[in-house]
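User: Okay, second chain of the day. Same drill as before: sequence in, structure tokens out.
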Amino acid sequence: MAKQYETVIGLEVHVELATKTKIFCSCSTEFGGAPNTHTCPVCTGMPGSLPVLNKQVVEYAAAIGLATNCEITKVCKFDRKNYFYPDNPQNYQISQLYLPIARNGYVEIEVGDMKKKVRIHEMHMEEDAGKLVHDEWDDTSLVDYNRSGVPLVEIVSEPDMRSADEVIAYLEKLRMIIQYLGASDCKLQEGSMRADVNLSVREVGSEKFGTRTEMKNLNSFKAIARAIEGERQRQIDLLEAGRSVVQETRRWDDNKESSHAMRSKEDAQDYRYFPEPDLVPIVISDEWIAEIRARQPELRTEKLERYKKEFDIPQYDAEIITGTKKLADIFEATTAICKKPKKVSNWLMVETLRLLKEHDMEAEDIRFSPENLAKLIELADAGTINSSVAKEVFEKIFTEDVDPEQYVEEKGLKTVNDTGALQAVVEKIIADNPQAAADYRGGKEKALGALVGQTMKAMKGKANPGMVNQMLRELLSK
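Assistant: Same drill. Structure tokens below.
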């Protein structure tokens, strides 16, 4: 009988914090920017320069720790992790090994009908390294230190996940919590959230863990799911062939859908960690923790409850809208302007989600303003524009955030409510389509739809469909 294998997965998730300046200097953390323009002697590792800790980093890290049910370490400190790499300007990274800021937490995930706690081993603060840019043409590597010194938290889970679905559920839950806190935008494609996957396989029923590998270079949820499947299969094939899995770091190539070995796995002693001599320990008092806790915003669970009571929208809609902070923010801001929560919910649930899918965008990428969505809802409600025109205008709002009132005015899209003008068009349509008119009079209700369509076409979609329908029925029954 073929052996059955179980996958065991733990994650190391790096999150760039949304501070304006870096962790130990006052350089900008903004993404983009010409290479090496967001730099200074501290973040490029110049001799004699000294780091000064950014207080906001500690506050964000503690907020994430509290929201993920961790114990906050009241006296924590930084350590030096020594390694030589061209994008690491000091030849060491300031991180936390012995006393990380938070430990022993968990987040609850849902996969299908199953709820499960994924434990968090620890979370520490550290600085990011620079970025190497490999130029194939010149066969050279260039280094950009803009990212060097950007503050990170690294969240290390226990090996509690057993499938790609559980991993994605865990990452989505973490991303949602961190976005709600405003601690990071968690954009995988910009690298502000990165996950390294530690994976091993073992025979079902075995208590002992197999040998694990670590996979890097994963910049989308889809790539993570593919990498897990690929690595699981590779390890099973090795074991089936009587060979052993080597503990190593592997790089996932999403285009080729395969991974290759990068280096053998280092252990803590390889990094010669020692306490960072240039920084004093951080003392986090009970008062400070209470202050951070009091500032925590409303998280998703509380929002869901409030939406159901306050806005009377369906449970399903409330779950989708609160699933990302961006949608929740737009929903609340638009509702505050037009006071029509159900209408706002419909526009977000139907048209917004459709356009996000069409443009292959995430909710975080939405650029339109609540003001313009509220104006559109008012125009459609007042009958100034009909529903098909409203959808057309919304596409413009979605892509260019146009002012719908101006746009409707400029393009002459207002609904024609002038009965005289409309009657002349309807009479012409009946005269031009004698067969359809005869079919309707003969009891074929479907024929009316064709005549309504012809009239709307003649009116360039600007007639009131209800009015057209009513007028056709009246004229055809004479």
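Residues 419-477 form a domain with the Arc Repressor Mutant, subunit A fold (CATH 1.10.10.410).

User: Thanks, on to the next one.
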